[in-house]
Amino acid sequence: MLQAVIFDLDGVIVDSHLAHKQAWKSFLNSLGKEVTEQELEFVVEGQKREAILRHFLGDLSPNQIRHYGDAKNLFLRDAIPELKTVNGLSQFLRQVETARLPIALASSASRSRVELVLAQLNLKRSFKVVVTGDDVFQGKPDPAIFRIAAEGLGIEPCNILVCEDAVNGVEAAKAAGMKCLAIATDGRGPILEKAGADRIMPDFTSAKLEELCELFTGELKT
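Above: the chain's sequence. Below: its structure in token form.
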């Protein structure tokens, strides 16, 4: 039965994809590299920062990754005060908290950025466990990040619902043996369904925990 919920950050907790893509575009432009809007879609598919940097800039040393990562975060930090939560998130979080289900966050973003965003949105206390890209060697679609979150929660993967919005994230959740609710915007539903999402919604506005329990046994943990 449903015993815990794990959330991704970007595009699930916070409506940040536009700011995220703009920060990467500005950062890459500062290095003299022009990128198209289509190419920028890569940055919202749940990749770790290292993978994104190597995708656009080629082979990099660990020192270069740290330097470029810090530089990119400066561009994003300017946009953080404008960030807002995904529609319906607050109401859905209340449903989960009322049901007394433990909540975790598993994001490919760096821990510094995750903590900055959660602090800005006053959400840090909502999460019993926070796992970031800094805590895993392989990013999504590798399931490690979700398995670590499950271990931290002390819940079996088969009893966990993951809320994701990226193909890599959905694939990682399913590989970890978890159910997945996909938050699909801009017509992304079909690709997330193909990735294995169990339920697809445009946001959390119509999300009902009781209905999501049907993905398990139809009952909440009591």
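Residues 62-77 form the longest helix (16 residues).
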